[in-house]
Amino acid sequence: MRIIIDRNIRGAEATFGQLGELVPMEGRDIQKNHLDGADLLIIRTATQANAELLEGTSVRFVGTTSIGTDHLDIPWLESKGIGLANAPGCNADSASQYTLAMAWLACQRLGRKLLDSRVGIIGRGNVGSRVQTLLTALGVETVANDPPLTDQGVMGLVSQAEALACDIVCLHVPLTTDGPYPTLHMIGSEQLAQMPEGALLLNSARGNVVHGDALLEAMREGRVHAALDVWPNEPLLDPELLARSAVATPHVAGYSDDGKRNGAWMVYEAYCVQAGIEPLTRGEQGQGRSSMTIRNPELALNEALETACFVYRHDYALRALAGLPSGQIAPGFDRLRKEYPYRRDFHGWDVTCDEQSAAKTLSALGFRLDGAGA
């Protein structure tokens, strides 16, 4: 079996490597001629899996190790009898924890306290629900809006207008263009005008959920702030939008080692089910554990979030792209994603913190505590 696979998929050898010959490639470089004789195509969001790429090829299964599927032409794939799978929820812990770290840093830069804010979560699925759980563990007031869940009878949700009326608005929806609740450009001028003066919009979902021109105009007028991990029309970032954002990172919220390996395993297992193959037993997803020692209990949360998620480091790296010629910004964006360093989810960290209250807070977020504070 010949398997064309994005070279940046972690855990490829332990999963698809057991099925046949792996041909690793850069996701954006995969072309139709590369698929000659290929049986499987395993990708991430950088590759568009559609008729233009796949018509006339031997590929019979397409798997994406991402949550989203907006880069897959699902109706066309199904019409051709090509199997497909994605990995919903694979990096939900990673993305939610990174979102918390982004919100924390943005509030610091804006001179406010996250713990004193009211947060509106739009999209309470795998990621949004975890963001709400993390914020609740810190005592932050939250509300959540999710029309599809409301239609299913889920209680405790609010209208979009009420979510937009919060100090911070977090977006956690897929990018869709049809159905009863399409999300393409769901946040435009009208929605931004409903946000309070000086509110923070945080997007770690999909860039084009937000209308870029409308957001930039609202930021120019000083009406709203933004913390963005995903960008309209990425990787072609608008340098002004980048410069005006309170926090700016290169679409890496879900990029923990745990999340990447989960994605590979989920797609591998889905393929095995479709092919009638007994999958291997899933082993430990991370490669070892990480550790940290809290030196200043008063800054424990700040220290833990930056150590585990290092948002500041990637904010700095992405902003450095703004000074490059326009033709170099997109390659630079892709490079930052490709070279993203090893990161564990909170449960993969052993934390030493001798102050009991700080240790209790970190434990509530999912860190494993050692020492006297545990």
Question: What can you see in these coordinates?
Answer:
Helix 2 (74-79) links the parallel strand 4 (61-64) and strand 5 (83-85). The mean pLDDT is 94. The chain folds into three domains: 2-86 and 256-275, Rossmann fold (3-Layer(aba) Sandwich), CATH 3.40.50.720; 92-248, NAD(P)-binding Rossmann-like Domain (Rossmann fold, 3-Layer(aba) Sandwich), CATH 3.40.50.720; 290-370, Ribosomal Protein S8, Chain: A, domain 1 (2-Layer Sandwich). The protein has a six-stranded parallel sheet, sandwiched between helices. Strands 2-1-3-4-5 form a five-stranded parallel sheet. Helix 3 packs across helix 4 (126-137). It has helices at 51-54, 74-79, 92-109, 126-137, 147-151, 160-164, 189-193, 212-220, 239-244, 257-275, 300-309, 311-319, 326-338, 356-365, and strands at 2-6, 21-25, 40-43, 61-64, 83-85, 118-122, 141-145, 168-171, 199-203, 224-228, 247-248, 290-293, 349-352, 368-370. By secondary structure, it is α/β, with parallel strands linked by helices.
What characteristics describe this protein?
Ribosomal Protein S8, Chain: A, domain 1; Rossmann fold; 374 residues; alpha/beta; 14 strands; 35% helix; 16% strand; globular; 3 domains; five-stranded parallel sheet; 14 helices; six-stranded parallel sheet
